[in-house]
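Hey L., structure's done. Input below.
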Amino acid sequence: MGQKNISFMILEITIATAGLLAFTRLLYVSKGMPFIGSYYATIFAALFIYVPVMIMWWRRRPLDFLDRSPTIFLRGILYFIIVSLIVFPPYLLCAHFWMLFVYGREGFALASFPDLTKTVIFQILLIALPEEFFFRGYMQGTLDKVFSKRWRVFGTTLGWSWVLTAIIFAFSHSFVSYQWWHFSIFFPALVFGWLRERTGSITAPVLFHAMSNIISDWVMRSYF
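Output:
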């Protein structure tokens, strides 16, 4: 790929990301307004899907991060299950000690899920899908054309696109609404990126992303 094309891709990602984050920040600080407050998540989801679709249509690049066959879809489901069984048990153990020693929360009260179906649908369709569509689908896939893959990580070949996308993903959360712990989002973002490269689609990262949010929220509600 020529240097001109590489520079254009970097400029394209920069403009798209900066524009989306600036608009999302504007939406966030305007959540007190009736319409925006009611439809914030829907507007956010639509933008994070619509913008990369329009860019890739304009640039004549395929949406090759979507499932192209039942086999790819089932592989995504399988890797989601396997990685979840590997990651979440030690995460829950670490979260317990974090709550114990950092927050000083000794009492654990098993939190319920009053509307689990609604929560799962919301997390998948309005949070995980649009974020993974933009970051792991569009951004990581585009950066793969800029940076060569040179590392083998758990059987998958990865490059700087994997790391940079995780960094930008974590930073974007603080840009919209700052929280000191947002740096830690970098680590699950690496898992999202690995799943995208391993399976060839965003199905597994979307599901794992949604499950991460649901479990993190459950942990917080169980201690506070």
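The beta strands are 149-153, 156-159. Helices lie at 3-29, 34-58, 70-101, 116-143, 160-176, 186-199, 203-223.

-- N.
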